[in-house]
Amino acid sequence: MNPTASRASGRPIKLGLRANAAQFTLLVAVNALVGGMLGQERTVLPLLGEREFELTAYTAGLSFILVFGIAKAATNYFAGTWSDRFGRKPVLVAGWLVAVPVPLLLIWAPSWGWVIFANVLLGISQGLTWSTTVVMKIDLVGPARRGLAMGFNEAAGYAAVAVTALATGYLAEAYGLRPAPFLLGLAFAALGLGLSALVVRETRDHARFEAANHVARADGRHDHLHSELRDREVFRQTSFSEPALSSASQAGLVNNLNDGLAWGLFPILFATAGLSVGKIGILAALYPAVWGVGQLFTGALSDRWGRKWMIVAGMWLQAFALAVIALVDHFGGWAVAAVLLGAGTALVYPTLLASIGDVAHPTWRARSVGVYRLWRDGGFAAGALLAGVVADLVDVRAAVWTVAALTALSGLIVAVRMYETLHRPART
């Protein structure tokens, strides 16, 4: 493949991490700010619903995650289509514009309805911003380092979730649940909007260049997935028909189903054991911290070892960690389980995205990523609904056991149905 072509502006297009290091690093920083917007809620919002708005039913308390998941999942789908049609950068900037009111709504909310509306906006913003940074990094690095690129992307996002969850826990303990924790989110939104509008560059031409120089697999596996697919066909292939794409989509859904459980019910479970808000913040941060940092290694390893069995191992490790959380009732045990849950998620998260990039043709890859993220982030809504209903009917630990079983089953589906998507061209 010729690694370089010319844009209309005269600037050369080069694929690869080293050739695009400055823009890639900038996008990593932008996605860290995206993660920080999510992290502002992880420790504080479940406690806010219970203590300030006096929500007693678990299903009602998890309603903010339900609407967040629905909004983000739907927006993910459109983000892929819009980024192909209008370009990546306009979609990214639009996502940050939607994010700006969120911290203010959470600070001023006189009722839970305001919190629900804020999370609809947060879901739309996350769908636009996070999806677009994923696509832009895949555009820049080309086919050789997708796992590494997704590792950096997801590591930045979820490390920021962890740091912000920890920071907001301490702020809430020192200054109260509002407004101090959400002032961080306001700063993140302003900085993210400024960087995206003024410094980030469009990457759609990189995808077009890769498509023009695309080399089919020698084994002929993807020959039926030709470059010109309609939106409906992209949805069908990614969701149901293509074994690797659809296996990744269901695994992504279940992965975020258990993340929705962790987000909404873990702080309440820990509080029932008498833990302070500060300790709850530590536990809320441990899981995404290990998840985030671990992806710096797991994404790159999937470029060497392959995708399939890392995904299987990650799903089964998550299931085991959830079982431990359901069994123990003290800080130390929960801390160990949180580390295991983060490690399992780190094995899965960038690897699933890399597998989508392996299979989807560059001309419809952004749409396929959008469909995958539609299913994956639909897991937030499914997790909130399932966990809330089971917790209301039985108890919180029963909800954790239910999600653990579904996570183990998802890993089994990948083991049986998915093929290895990492293709190493034969040397000549």
Automatic annotation (TrEMBL):
Compartments where located: Cell membrane
Range of residues in the leader sequence: none
Matching Gene3D superfamilies: MFS general substrate transporter like domains
Keywords: Cell membrane, Membrane, Transmembrane, Transmembrane helix, Transport
Membrane topology: Multi-pass membrane protein
GO molecular function, one term: transmembrane transporter activity
Keyword Amino-acid biosynthesis applies: no
Domain Major facilitator superfamily (MFS) profile per the UniProt entry, residue ranges: 24-422
Entry-linked SUPFAM superfamilies: MFS general substrate transporter (SSF103473)
Residue spans crossing the bilayer: 21-38, 58-79, 91-108, 114-135, 155-176, 182-200, 260-278, 309-328, 334-353, 400-419
Listed CDD domains: MFS_MdtG_SLC18_like
UniProt-listed InterPro entries: MFS, MFS_dom, MFS_trans_sf, MFS_Transporters, Sugar_transporter_CS
Coarse class of the protein's main subcellular location: membrane
One GO location term (cellular component): plasma membrane
Designated name of the protein: Arabinose efflux permease family protein
Lineage of the organism: Bacteria, Bacillati, Actinomycetota, Actinomycetes, Pseudonocardiales
